[in-house]
C-alpha cells in the first residue's frame, strides 16, 4: 500500500476524528465536566470513529477491511498510551494556563500524537 495514499487518507480520517474529539471536549468542559474525564470521553468518541474508518478505508488491503480482534487489541494499547499523554497535557494546560488555552491547544497536542499514531497504525495495528 502506498505511503502517500495511506497518509492522505489518514489525514482526512484524522481531521474528522479531531473535529469530533475537540467538539466533545469543548462542549463537556464548557458544561463543567472536569478536564480529565472530558478528555477521556472525547478521545473515546474520536477513537471509535478513527478505528472504524482507518480499518475500512486507510489501511484496507485490496478492498478488504482490516478490523477485528487482534487489530482492535493493538489499537486499544496504542490508544491507552496516547490518551494518557494527551490527558496529562490537557489537564496541565487547563490548570496552568486556563481552560480556553487547553481548548486551543488540544488540536495541536492531538496533531502531534497523530504523527506517532500513523506510524504505529501503519506498521503494527493494521498490518
Structure characterization notes:
The protein is mostly helical and 127 residues long. The chain has one domain. The protein has four helices and no strands. It has helices spanning 3-30, 35-58, 69-97, 99-125. α1 runs antiparallel to α2 and α3 packs antiparallel against α4. It is elongated, with a radius of gyration of 15 Å. The mean pLDDT is 92.
Overview features:
127 residues, 85% helix
Please sum up the structure shown:
By secondary structure, the chain is mainly alpha-helical.
- Could you name the ranges where pLDDT drops below 50 across 5 or more consecutive residues? none
Tally of structural domains: 1
The whole-angstrom Rg is 15 Å
Mean pLDDT: 92
Please state roughly what percent of the residues sit in beta strands, choosing from under 5%, 5-15%, 15-25%, 25-35%, 35-45% or over 45%. under 5%
What characteristic shape results from the CA principal axes?
elongated
* Strand-pairing-aware structural class: mainly alpha
Sheet bearing the most strands, described? none
Termini, distance in Å?
11 Å
Count every helix, treating DSSP H or I runs of 4 or more residues as helices: 4
Q: In percent, how helical is the residue content?
A: over 70%
Find the count of extended strands (DSSP E, 2+ residues).
0
Order of helices and strands: HHHH
